[in-house]
Design a protein that fits this description.
The complex is a heterodimer of chains A (132) and B (337).
Chain A (H helix, E strand, L loop, with lengths): L6 E5 L8 H12 L3 E4 L6 H11 L3 E6 L4 H14 L6 E6 L6 H7 L1 E5 L5 H13 L1
Parallel strand pairs in A: 1-2, 1-3, 3-4, 4-5
Chain B lengths: L1 H7 L3 H12 L3 H10 L7 E7 L5 H14 L7 E7 L8 E3 L14 E7 L11 H10 L4 E5 L9 H5 L2 E6 L6 H5 L9 E4 L7 H15 L4 E5 L2 E5 L13 E3 L8 H17 L2 H29 L2 H12 L5 H10 L7
Parallel strand pairs in B: 1-5, 1-6, 2-4, 2-5, 6-7, 7-10
Antiparallel strand pairs in B: 8-9
Classes of the chains: A alpha/beta (132), B alpha/beta (337).
Amino acid sequence: MTDKKIRVLVAKPGLDGHDRGAKVVARALRDAGMEVIYTGLRQTPEMIAEAALHEDVDVVGLSILSGAHMALAPRILELLKSNGQENVKVFIGGIIPDEDMPRLKEMGITGIYGPGASTEDIIKDVREAVKT
Amino acid sequence: MPLAKSVLEGNRLSLSRLLTQVENDSPEGRAALVALFPHTGKAHLIGVTGAPGTGKSSLVNQLALFYRKQHASRKKVAIIAVDPSSPFTGGAVLGDRVRMRDLSGDEGVFIRSMASRGSVGGLAQTTASFTQVFDAAGYDIIIIETVGAGQSEVDIARLAHTTVVVEAPGLGDDIQAIKAGILEIADVLVINKSDRPGVENTERALRTALGLAHPTKRGFRHHGRPMFIDAPETDSKIWIPPINKTIATDGTGIAEVAESIAKHAAHIRQNGEWSLRDRARLGSELESVLQAELMSQFFKKVQKEKYDEVLEKVIRRDLSPHEAIKILLNGNSDQEL
């Protein structure tokens, strides 16, 4: 018998090619005992929603450094919802201006992490979000 | 059983959720497997195995693309991609989807990543159950990609109808090719990355190894003189694994691999091995279910304290494991040493 594992999709939507952050987070979540599905660079919102559906994940982590978060995040939330996965918690890491944060939270983004965020905080928040 | 019913109706969210239940061995998952079992037995299970970095995921990607685009009947394809779990934290990074992005947007393809969760044979404990779920859900072809396998991760041969072993140039000399294990289970051999140097050596080593197992008529020069050796009379029913060369990143050679797989499937259907493999697979599944059930019955009868107490004696070398089991199974305290 296995315990229920937390399954996380780490995805990189948009056109920038900086995936170091996504990989560091993927590795940290792995070391926290989670199963991380890593999809690689330049994913469309449709690809991300499809992967979330196939993998039955509890959490989607998006890494966005291109500035396109106000377009990408709502689209991904909408697709998750239309697939019946409105319970999936969505986190964003990357470069997010302070003034966008309240609007992203309002849309339903669970957590937002900028440069210098500690992986311990991310792990703690993911565990907390999945509990509820 | 609502979950099973909606999986049979083709609901992909239910399918995905059921896979999670099965993976966690939950009561709902077990009940659904029972309900789905009568609908299984139709799919062609194709195993893809090989050392890490030989290009298994890229090959699986191309094969699935081929089945979806070039195959006349547009078969539905499921992919189960297994990657290792950490032995220390139980966590995993499942990265096979990175190579399979060409398949996204096609509703006839379903890709599920699996962590091995402590299993050592190249698959996870519940991979066989996953194939049953996909089979019942109407997927015609189920491709199972194993953990990057070394030499003895050969569980896939017990699960799949056709096992594809992927090699790449530069991974070892001809001694590797005559060792027991992974090469023996190949029904189809693929030399991927065949644009790399050293591909002739890899091919020669594999041909030699296969030639030892399945001798054919050969000509060569011995001290400068041509010599021919006739193959011994063999049963023409024997399947000799074909060697296909591919470049999975651009799709070169994929049609040939698909053809070899189809030929192998036709061959084993015709000679009765298809049903023998089904029999072996279900036999070993029955055995592992039995083992799990006996274990759980045992732990219902024997208290944890008693078990720990006996284990303690084994650790102190007062008892050998064999003696300990006798005591535990008889359950008599008066037999205590």
